[in-house]
Amino acid sequence: FQQFSDPGSRKEHVKITSESKPGFLERLSETSGGMLMGLVTFLLSFYLLFTNEGRALRTAKSLDEGLSLVIPLDSIHSVSQQNEGRLVHLAGSLSTSKPLFDPSYGLSIQAVKLKRNVEMYQWVEYEDSTEYEENGEIKKETKYSYNTEWKSEVVNSRNFDREIGHKNPSAMAVESFTAVSPNVQVGSFVLSKGLVDKIDNFKQLSLSNLEDPHADVTRGGDYFYHSENPRRPEVGDLRVSFFYAGLSGDDPHLGSADKVTVIARQRGDQLVPYHTKSGDVLQILYPGDLSVEEVFQKEHESNTMKTWALRAAGWLAMFVGISLMTRIFHTLVDWFPVVRDLVNIGLKAFAFCVASSLSLLTISVGWLFYRPLWALLIGLLSVVPIVVAKSRVPPKKQQ
């Protein structure tokens, strides 16, 4: 059944649903489905941990190889045939052949990328639920609240619990887009698409020097508004903002062109990906003027952060998988509150220890082909959680 509580503003209501408390067989069936999901998650964690170690070591070796081979260029304004096919390092200002335009708003800028961001004023639904048991039934009380906000994506109001009074348009009259310059250079060298993709440090473009492009468009701050009253927008109104990345020419309002540092393979007057002997690809771009050592240090730091993030994700996946697979023991005793809580604590501790040991063991196997000594040390470390857990079990009393 449903019970509504509406104060009259049509911006908030409460719905209460109830269902019979599931029986033992039903709970056991749900647990069995969770065990299958846990098994899949458990197996995927091994793949994630193992492949991550190989990727991390391969990337580290590729970076070391690149550091030993890279050649800093003396000049970016001339192309030397002696460096053909070699890994080179250069730094300089970005340049593009022509500016990027948005004729709909009378805007142009000399940059690598120009992004138009369109937002629509829409209803947004928020949901807050609580469950409780009453008269042998499980009841769920859900509070729905509605607010109007600027959103870059269309919010489908058909999925709202109550669409009446909170209906959004099905599409935007103006679309977002990103324009990219077809030719980007640093000095005499043309950047590959992969290097251009790395230029993504977007900054909002000030519209203070522009006029209103149309009679039905009003400029307010750094936005163009498709609204009769931008200070009191209505659902369906639009506002448009612009962002740019990689300023490639001197601008009286934005300053001088952005500088970048690039490490890539020279092919004629183009900078393209460099394939290392380790099987990795090097095409690096950072904002600013950096030395060779600074670039490779940043790449090593990025590789280390990614490696530890994936290790944590792999351990968590293994912990969740083991918890789901052993959940059946909790279900078997869940009608005894004290026993249920003790079993729950024991299962969590078991999952923690086993996940930690198996994660370390998997990492050591991943290192076995690259650094056997470190693999052996990590393998020995993997037994520590089990030894610690076993040492906390009191010995049997002598008969």
Keywords:
19 strands, five-stranded mixed beta barrel, eight-stranded antiparallel β-sheet, single chain, alpha+beta, disordered N terminus, 399 residues, 2 domains, 35% helix, transmembrane, flat
Main pleated-sheet profile: 8 strands, antiparallel
Number of strands: 19
End-to-end distance = 62 Å
Give unreliable regions as ranges. 1-10
Whole-number total of structural domains: 2
Oligomer: single chain
Organism: Eurystomus gularis
InterPro entries: TMEM43_fam (IPR012430)
Family: Belongs to the TMEM43 family.
Protein name: TMM43 protein
Structural write-up:
With 399 residues, this protein is of the alpha+beta class. It folds into 2 domains: 25-71 and 290-383, no CATH class; 80-268, no CATH class. The protein is built from 7 helices and 19 strands. The strands form 4 sheets. Strands 1, 6, 7, 8, 11, 12, 13 and 14 form an 8-stranded antiparallel β-sheet that branches. A 5-stranded mixed beta barrel has the order 3-9-10-16-15. Strands 4-5 form a two-stranded antiparallel ribbon. Strand 15 (259-267) and strand 16 form a beta hairpin. It is flat, with a radius of gyration of 30 Å. Keywords: Endoplasmic reticulum, Membrane, Nucleus, Transmembrane, Transmembrane helix.
